[in-house]
Amino acid sequence: MSETTSFFNTPSPPQLKGIWAWLLTQDHKRLAVMYLWAVMFWFGIAITIGFLIRIELMSIGPTIMGPDLYNAAFTLHGVIMIFLFVIPGIPAIFGNFILPIQIGADDVFFPKLNLLSWYLYMAGGIMALVSLFTGGGFPDTGWTFYVPFSISTSHNVPLTVLAAFTLGMSSMLTGLNFITTVHRMRIKEMGWMQIPLFTWALYATAWVQLLATPVISITLLLIIFERLFSIGLFDPDKGGDPLLYQHLFWMYSHPAVYVMILPGMGVISEIIPTFSRKAIFGYKAIVYSSMGIAIAGSLVWAHHMYTSGMSDTAIFVFSLLTFLVAIPTAVKVFSWVGTMYKASIEMTPPLLYAMVFIYLFSVGGLTGLVLGAAGTDIHVHDTHFVVAHFHFTMFGGTGFAFFAALHYWWPKMFGIMYDFKRAYIAATLATVGFMFHYVPMFILGMMGMPRRYYDYLPQFSQGNLFAGIGGILLFIGIMLMLINLLLSFRKQEKAVANPWGGVTLEWSIPSPPPLHNFVAPPTVQDYPYDFSNVLQKAAAQHSSVNTEQKESE
Ligand SMILES: [Cu+2]
Fold first, then answer.
1. Rounded to the nearest whole angstrom, what is the distance from the C-alpha of residue 240 to the centroid of ligand 1?
2. How many angstroms is it from 466 CA to the middle of ligand 1?
3. CA distances from residue 446 to 165, 169, 192, 458 in whole angstroms, order as listed
4. pTM of the entire predicted model
5. Nearest to 434 by CA among 462, 458, 399
6. 93 neighbors 179 (Cβ within 8 angstroms)
7. CA distance 255 to 262
8. Which contacts (CB < 8 Å, 24+ apart) does range 297-300 have?
9. DSSP state of 396
10. What interhelical angle do 400-414 and 28-57 show, nearest 10?
11. Of 10, 335, 359, 391, which one has the greatest count of Cβ atoms within 10 A?
């Protein structure tokens, strides 16, 4: 039975033709590619808005937009980045493509539900887009939709909130699919302690997606009810409390930061051993730390509310819990660095992005401790210090892990290689730009520059100028990275099945994989990152080259 291939080199069942081979596909690989283009579209929009915000803030007073547009712009940047890029990015694209293959399966457990998740993702995106041009225009509340302003503002909060609600549904169904797939589709030879770490990270993430997302879904619906029926849930005059909203919002949104970062950490746990040609250090510790983060991460939400008037006891408890979460996170960073210690490292673009991730995310994590401590947090709460912190964790972390995943699995997904030299230049530009962009913001925040303000005092000018220059470099670096990857479609330099010498199952099948993934039954290694075979093969190859050379001399 012949399989049809298409422009993006992903096979589809012969009975589906043309556009229907995409819109009705139930193949996890095709869905991954459909998510890739949709997510990159939103990323392109959100990073451009971020760039324009930075240009506006580069000098004092109005530059390219007025205060109303500025409020809508940072809200739009936040909503799109979080709900349409950072949360779905790695799980929906690389999780969909790679997870089933890593456990030896030919698809996820619920292929139809997987297709539905994609349509919910698209519907959520379109709703967000439509809310830009209808009902008073895009919300100006910030991505947190804090009450009472999100109830009183004339901007189009209901449609945007509904968009976030729909995207939450898509995220929950993807989580449900991944949990069931890992339990039911894994080949029987693969025990729990033989599952690759990317799949483990997605499994831990899926539990948070499934258990925490309903909280935000209900909370967002409450905003719509309040706007329609003004019940008074958040109105003190009617016995309500606006702080209730903040507790509900962060009960999801802090665990959500682990939905955002855990998949990225899983990517790094794949890349570091591959290019260190060495078994990952502390496999079990990394597995338990993923689950530990998923559990402990749901107990710290009120560290976003130290200045809300909560009791000292509550502040003490949430601060202590916040420090506890730092431990499993540090275990991962320690294990990645431990893996590279005395390893035979081969530099490649995916490894460069992975190393930049480790550095940027560590800065993000350490400044998280500054915010977790009530004494310092009360000083820098709602300033640009906070903006710098979460961009180091979410952009430096998840964003750069996304870039690492893109460069690591691109040959597998499309069967083509990209230009390394341009990839290195883009990664370097993006990293230098990133540092110039966000480091000044830590200082501006310590100096007291509040976030979300349209304008600022003269003493903040220099810092914002530097941040602006960094923003331009960062933007150019990322655009060059995307262009370089797209150019690989034109060059069509074929990729082999295992261009990196990886040992997880996706590297044992052709690039791109055939429709049902495996041409022969997959074999499972006792230990998921055992490079002894690869090294033996490399050593054998090396010695045969040597003998050939000696003979030719
Ligand atoms: Cu938090």
1. 24
2. 28
3. 35, 38, 46, 15
4. 0.94
5. 399
6. no
7. 11
8. 297/208, 297/254, 297/255, 297/257, 297/258, 297/325, 298/208, 298/211, 298/212, 298/251, 298/254, 298/255, 300/254, 300/325
9. I
10. 150
11. 10
Q: What is the pLDDT of residues 315-326, one digit of tens each?
A: 999 999 999 999
295 vs 141, 259, 265, 290, 313, CA distance in Å? 30, 12, 16, 9, 22
CA-to-CA distance for 305 and 318, rounded, in angstroms?
A: 10
Residue identified by tokens 């597995």 is: 287
Q: How far is the CA of 67 from the centre of ligand 1 (A)?
A: 28
User: In this structure, what DSSP letter does residue 12 have?
Assistant: B
Q: For residues 524-547, b (16+ Cβ closer than 10 Å) or e, as one string?
A: bbeebbebeebeeeeeeeeeeeee
- Looking at 230-348, list the stretches that DSSP marks H as alpha helix, in order from N- to C-terminal side: 242-276, 283-296, 312-340
**Ligand 1: distance of its center to the CA of 158 in Å?**
25
| Collapsed DSSP state (helix, strand, coil) of residue 4 | strand
Amino acid type, 250: W
Mean pLDDT of the chain: 93
Ligand 1 mean position to 254 CA, how many Å?
Answer: 4
Strand, helix or coil for residue 50: helix
Q: Ligand 1 centroid to 528 CA: how many Å? A: 33
Q: How far is the CA of 12 from the centre of ligand 1 (A)?
A: 42
**Closest C-alpha to 31, from 548, 413, 508:** 413
Alpha carbon of 145 to ligand 1 centroid (Å): 16
- Say what percent of the chain tops pLDDT 70: 94
Phi, psi (5° rounding) for residue 414? Answer: -115, -5
Residue 411's nearest CA partner among 499, 351, 349, 489 is 499
Q: Which residue has the higher pLDDT, 536 or 314?
A: 314
DSSP string, 440-493: HHHHHHHTT-BTT-S---GGGHHHHHHHHHHHHHHHHHHHHHHHHHHHHHHH--
Per DSSP, what are the bridge partners of residue 450?
383
**Cα torsion 304, 264, 121, 95: sign:** negative
Instruction: Evaluate if residue 494 carries a pLDDT over 70.
Output: yes
| Cβ-contact 103, 187 below 8 angstroms | yes
Tallying the residues shown for the chain, one arrives at 553
Q: What is the dihedral of CA 285, 290, 294, 296, to 10 degrees?
A: 30
Residue in 519, 486, 326 with CA at minimum distance from that of residue 416: 486
* pLDDT tens track for 360-398: 999 999 999 999 999 999 999 999 999 999 999 999 999
The torsion defined by the Cα of 374, 376, 377 and 378, in degrees rounded to 10, comes to 80
User: Cβ atoms within 10 A of the Cβ of 146, count?
Assistant: 16
The strand pairing partners of 494, in sequence order, are: 416
In the three-class reduction of DSSP (H, G, I as helix; E, B as strand; rest coil), residue 344 is classed as coil
- Token pair of 123, please? 């519907």
**Domain 15-552 in this protein, CATH class:** mainly alpha
